[in-house]
Design brief:
Length: about 210
């Protein structure tokens, strides 16, 4: 698109290599030694950089999720950003309703939704993204990720209730253990008159239980 350019520098490349190493059983200063594999999808947006990953506290796993709800449509003259962030809610198995929230970087717009939980204190095992593909038009309003849904171990799906723009991609691989970390790809605010997209892509960390 004439309004944008994809940015993929050496720091991002090195981070990707580090994540690959962690997924293969090595240690990485971001994900740590708990890493079993990285869950990713192929339809994420192309803008912004990967933020630093965040992990559930030791011994806990993601049992719920909250979305930074998309801001309302801004109209023909406004700049829409759609989905701005995702927050994992982490619980220790058998600890009842106690939980802690972790998130990677999120955008400045929108509000956090009420938490949604896997039934019977279940845990997350995968996700899918709804993304508007780049429009490649001079006056288009790019929004990138518009919604996310998450799969629980029992097959229950947690829906975000986001925008209907874009298309759902395929599910990520399913985690044989439990999700315990999150990393987002965010485009930072561009200032007055810019075309902001905020959340573009997402990764989840799969840990052994």
């Amino acid at each position: 698109s004439p309004r944008r350019a994809v940015r993929m520098g050496w720091p991002v490349l090195l981070l990707l290599l580090g994540l690959t190493s962690a997924a293969e059983g090595g240690q990485d200063s971001g994900w740590g030694s708990r890493a079993a594999s990285i869950l990713a999808v192929s339809n994420g947006g192309p803008w912004g950089d990967w933020a630093w990953p965040e992990m559930c506290p030791e011994g806990s796993y993601a049992t719920g999720v909250s979305w930074k709800v998309v801001e309302p449509p801004q109209g023909a003259a406004g700049d829409d950003t759609a989905l701005n962030g995702v927050r994992l809610l982490c619980s220790v198995p058998g600890a009842g309703s106690a939980s802690s929230a972790v998130q990677s970087q999120s955008g400045r717009w929108g509000r956090w939704s009420e938490p949604r939980w896997c039934p019977h204190q279940g845990h997350l095992v995968g996700f899918a993204l709804r993304v508007q593909a780049p429009q490649h038009q001079l006056l288009s309003d790019e929004v990138a990720a518009t919604d996310a849904r998450f799969a629980c171990a029992d097959g229950h799906v947690l829906e975000g209730g986001g925008s209907e723009w874009g298309k759902w991609g395929s599910w990520s691989p399913l985690c044989p253990g439990a999700v315990c970390g999150i990393q987002t790809r965010q485009e930072p605010p561009g200032g007055f008159g810019s075309d902001d997209t905020t959340l573009n892509d997402l990764r989840l960390l799969c840990c052994k239980k």
